[in-house]
Design brief:
Helix content is about 50%, strand content about 20%. It is built from 5 helices and 7 strands, in the order ααββββααβαββ. The radius of gyration is 24 Å and the shape is elongated. Helix 2 runs antiparallel to helix 5 and helix 4 packs antiparallel against helix 5.
């Protein structure tokens, strides 16, 4: 029993890593700083900065009031599926992040089930091995969704792809300069952590000297230690 519990130490560490990755992932979903747009030419559009995210866009315009003091106005728009002006990269990214969210939740449930079975001594091909592998596959797939979103948005920035925002946004089709925001870095880091934990879960092995011996039960096998 002790040997069985010790064999899952890496999976416990993987669970901690996946939890950190999950926290970073959910944080990146709530951030607007995926793409940073800088408008430096006031002759065309008001000078300011725009944070273009997957779920919302925030615009910060600089201005001067009648007393010649500086100030800024903030405008945020939450994206919906009815926003036809959004490029394909953002619309698909929304679906990818939602899929990653669901896959991560399922993966978390499977790994909790698998670790519970290990520590309670409930073993068998249907209760121990499959939950570990299932959680690993789910986390790896979720990681792929998040990495695709991060790299696709970074590709859009590198290639200076524009967005046809409505006139109410007071934003050009393309900014004077744009760069990757902190959300891309957070998302990429979360994806790597989930990928690492998924690989750990997939490669779980039973400790040497232990084997399954059928005792005539229909759904459960008994783990026997060889002397």
């Amino acid at each position: 029993m002790t040997l069985l519990v010790n064999s899952a130490n890496r999976q416990v560490a993987g669970f901690a890593v996946s939890t950190i990755g999950w926290i970073l992932f959910t944080t990146s979903m709530g951030l607007a700083e995926w793409r940073l747009w800088y408008m430096d030419d006031p002759s065309l559009f008001p000078k300011g900065v725009a944070s273009v995210g997957i779920w919302r866009t925030c615009v910060y315009h600089h201005h001067r009031d009648s007393n010649q003091s500086h100030g800024h106005t903030k405008f945020c728009h939450r994206h919906t599926y009815n926003d036809t002006f959004l490029p394909l990269s953002i619309r698909i990214s929304q679906h990818l992040l939602l899929a990653a969210n669901l896959l991560g939740l399922l993966g978390k449930a499977f790994i909790v089930l698998a670790l519970r079975n290990v520590y309670m001594g409930i073993v068998g091909t249907n209760t121990l091995f499959n939950p570990f592998v299932a959680s690993g596959v789910l986390y790896i797939t979720a990681s792929a969704c998040v990495l695709t979103t991060a790299f696709w948005n970074y590709y859009s920035i590198v290639n200076v792809q524009g967005i046809a925002f409505p006139s109410s946004f007071h934003l050009p089709f393309k900014p004077d300069t744009q760069e990757a925001g902190s959300a891309i870095l957070v998302a990429a880091l979360s994806a790597l952590l989930m990928l690492l934990s998924g690989l750990v879960f997939c490669f779980y092995k039973f400790p040497p000297g232990q084997k399954y011996v059928s005792r005539g039960f229909r759904n459960t096998d008994v783990l026997e230690t060889s002397v």
